[in-house]
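Handout, page 2. Input:
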Amino acid sequence: MIASMTKYSFILLNGTQNDLLERLQEIGLVDITRSAKPIDATSEELVADIELLDGLIHGLQGVEIPEGTVPEAIDGDIVRLAGGMLMRYADDSNDIKALRKDVESLRVWGQFNPELLQTLKEAGAPIHFHVLSTKAFKPEWAGEYALSVIQAEKSKTWFVVAGDDALPGEIAIPEADITEKEKELKEHEHHFQTVLSRLAGARERMAELEERKAEDYAKLDLHLAGAAAVPAAEDTIVTLVGYAPTEKDAEVTSALDAAGVFYLKDAAVVEDNPPISFKNNWFVRQFETLTDMYGRPAYDGFDPTPFISIFFLLFFAFCMGDAGYGLVLLLAGSLLKKVPSFKDMAPLVMILGGATVVIGFLFHTFFSMDISQWSVFEPIKGIFLPAQIAGNDATMILALAVGILHICLAMVVKTIHQTKTKGFFASLGTWGWTLLIVGGVAVAAFALAGVLNEAITKWIVIGLGVISALGIFVFNDPKRNKFANIGMGLWDTYNMITGLMGDVLSYLRLYALGLAGGMLGMAFNDMGAMVLGDGSVLPLWIPFILLVVIGHTLNIAMCALGAFVHPLRLNFLEFFKNSGYEAGGRTFNPLKKQ
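Output:
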C-alpha cells in the first residue's frame, strides 16, 4: 500500500539552510525536493571527483596482478598516485605488447648487423628483405638472383636478395636485430614488474578511495538539497519543502524541535506531488522492484505490488512448471546470498523457486519426467492435476481460468478505486461493466458447479443484464446527454468485447511456455536415454550425464527468461489496463548519509 506522507515547509534565514540539511541528513527520513543533476560549479566539481574516484576504483580492480607479486608500500595522495600508476600501467602494457610483436617478427631473420647492411648499400650491393606467400614464391628465382631463403612455411616464405631486384613482397629493413629488441623487451618487463608491485600497494589502500567517494556523494546530495531552496523576501529568507512518512512524524518533529527550526506541517495532498513510499510486508516488498520497472503510482493511485506478488509468482511457476527446475532456483537463490551485488535478489529467486516446486509437483513433473507414474507417489496421486478437464488439456483450461480470474480482479480493483476517488455516481459505467463481467463469471461458475439451478441462474442473469445495461448505456456519465451516453456505451461495448477476448486468450502463453519447456526437457531426456541404452556399458554414463545436465541447464535458462518476461507482460498490460493503473509517482528518496 502507499504510505501516507506529511509535508514539511521550512522557513529559514538565507545561509542557515545547511545546518538544517545536515540535521535532516542525520535523520535520514525526509525527502527534500531537489535537483538530481549538476546545477552549478560546485555540483559539477563534486560529480567530476566522484567519476574520477569511481574510475580509479574500477581501474585498480581490473588490473591483472600475477600471484606472488609483493605489494610495495606507497605514501602520499592515493588519488594522484593511483591515477599516475594506472596511466603507466596502460602505457607499459601497450609498449610490451608492441615489443613482443616486434620480437616475433624479427625472430625469423635471426641476428644481423644493421650497420653492415648500410655499408653494403653504400657500396652498391644493397640487401633487400622479402616476405611473400609460399604459393607466389618461385624457386627458379634462386638461379636468377642472389637470393637466399631464410625460412619457408606452408603459408609464407621469407628471403633476402642482394643487389638490384624487382621481386615482389619487399619490406623495410628492420632497424634493429632480435638481440636488441629482446634486450629492450626485458627492460620494459622489469620496469613493468615495479609498476605491478606499486599497483598492488595502491590496491591495499583502495578503501581510502571508497571512503572519499562516499564523502563526495554525501556532499553532493547535501549541496543539491540546499540548491532546492526558494529565495524570498529579497534573499533574506529561504523556504524548503520536504516529505516524510506520516508514521515517522513523532521522530521527525522531535529532531526538528530539538534543532530549533521553524516549520509548518500538513498532510500531503495530490497537488503537492509527494514522493511515493510503499508500506508492505516482507513478502510483498520482494516484488516492489517489478512495480518500479513500470513506474510508481500517483499519490491518489493504488499500489499494484500486492497483486503482482501473487499473480507474477503464480504465472512464473506456471511457465516453469517443473519441480526439479524449482529446486535449481532454490539452490541458485541460496548461492546468490553469498554474492554482495546480488544478495538483494536472493529472496525473490528463492520465493519463485519455492512456488515452482509446488506447481511443478501439482503438475507431476520433475526434470520433465512424469512422477505420477512413480510408485512412491501412488498414495497421493489424487492431488496431481488430471491430464484433461472436460475433454481438453487441463493445463490449458487452468491457464484460461487463471487469466479470467486475473482480469476480473483487475476490474474489481478499478471499480473500487474509481468509486473512492471519483465517487459512486461518477463510476456507474465502471460498476455496470464489473457487474456484467465479474458477476456473469461468478454466476457461470456456480451454475457449472451445480450450486444454482437453471431457473435461479436465468433470473440472476436477467437482473445483472438490466442493472449493468443501465450503468453502461444510460448512467455512464451523469453529466452527459443520455443519447450521447448510449452512443458512448455502444462504443465501449465494441472495445470491451474485442479487448477482453484478446486479453483472455493472451493467458494461453502460460500454457504454451510450460508445454514448450516440458517438451524440450523430455527431448533431452530421450536423447540421453538413447545414448545410455540399457546402462550396462559404464563409459556411456559420461555422455549421458553431460547431455542431460547441459540440456536441462539450457532449458532452465530459456524457461526462466520466458517465465520472467511473459508474466511481467500479463501484469503490465492485461492487469494494468483493466484495473486502470497509471504510473506517475516519484520514488521516495530521503536525504541521508551514504
